[in-house]
Amino acid sequence: MSKNYSPIKAAAICSFTGHKLQVTHQVNDRIQELCCVKCGKQMTTNIYGNIVPLSDQYSRINRALNDLAVKKNRRELGIYS
To answer: What confidence tens digit (pLDDT) does each residue in 32-48 have?
Structure first.
């Protein structure tokens, strides 16, 4: 998509053709944060695997889950800090 589209036009295009989502952050093995390449809308997967809009609440949950995943990986690798 051309960079000349306004966000309103991009959102209108996504409403007709659907979002083209790209993974922006892998929170853990099940949860991902996604962003639409066309309109820039941010989404995430919830605990059921559904794609939902990324709200402040989901952002905080994802941050906490990421911290837990990092601690778990460090413990499994024997890296203590």
So the answer is: 999 999 888 999 999 89
